[in-house]
Amino acid sequence: MEHVLVTGGAGFIGSHLVEALLRAGLQVTVVDDLSSGKKKYVAPAAKFHKLDIRSGNLRSLARRLKPSYVCHLAAQSSAPASRDDAAHDADINIVGTLNVLEAVKNIGLKKFLFVSSAAVYGAPDITPAAEEATLKPGSPYALSKLTIEKYLAYYASDFGVPYVVARPANVYGPRQKTGGEGGVVAIFCNKLLQGKAILIDGTGQQTRDFIYVTDVAQGMALALQQGRGVYNLATGTEISIRELAVRIGEVIGEVPLIEYAPAREQDINRSCLSPQKAQRDLKWQATVPIIDGLRQTLRWYKSHS
Known about the structure:
Strand 5, helix 5 and strand 6 (163-168) form a beta-alpha-beta unit. 40% of the residues lie in helices and 17% in strands. It is of the alpha/beta class and 305 residues long. It starts with a strand and ends with a helix. The protein is globular, with a radius of gyration of 19 Å. The longest helix is centred in the middle third of the chain and has 20 residues, at 140-159. Helix 4 runs parallel beside helix 5. The chain is built from 10 helices and 13 strands. The strands form 4 sheets. Strands 3-2-1-4-5-6-11 form a 7-stranded parallel sheet, sandwiched between helices. Strands 7-10 form a two-stranded parallel sheet.
């Protein structure tokens, strides 16, 4: 049985990826410092090590385990937080990731999966944005993701580490944080379940490409085993933030009370990614319609409130 090391495997997306890898018949070990993830989200069949990716102990663990694959999701994932402290963001997302790469560069990996972000596109000139679109990262967080994409080419050429990059769109679903740095779907669901108003920055006409977390996890699992290069994991469909709030209300059976705040300076008006390359190469596509995904997400938050 082939072995996969998953960093950030106790987090929102990482824990769902662990489950997808286990379903694929792989042995999984999770490394997570639990700064944002939760141990209870890790599937019982996976082994778990509480460890910061910046730790020197990661190198000895990697040499001992000698995994066939690595899936790297551990990260500082907030663009606003990266603007407040770019050095902290770089310490985790760049220096931490390089520590992971140094730990595994000589163990004969079959593939290194790096989870990047739609943020590397910034405000794309054309939507849906394809992988070859001009990249215009607008935050230290986005810059850190793009920097590692470039480092991966170096580790491939100098150390023969095969890699694949996943750029997910706006992921939502069970286990996503509902706090200030949580995803918009999680925040809206939490507010509506509490009977509170939804606060939207700007007009609410800005659009995003929302994709359910199990679809993303399945795409990552396929990319790990079959992919090369860079893949968008997305629906290719835009929905406005205001329409999202209305649809969540429909699932609950209420008309949401929406309040508006001034638009954020760095907010992107349109963000949508093309999934055509992943559909062609990986035979993958998003299968969960947004109304079904919202229904499942709300059901989870209700049961965990």
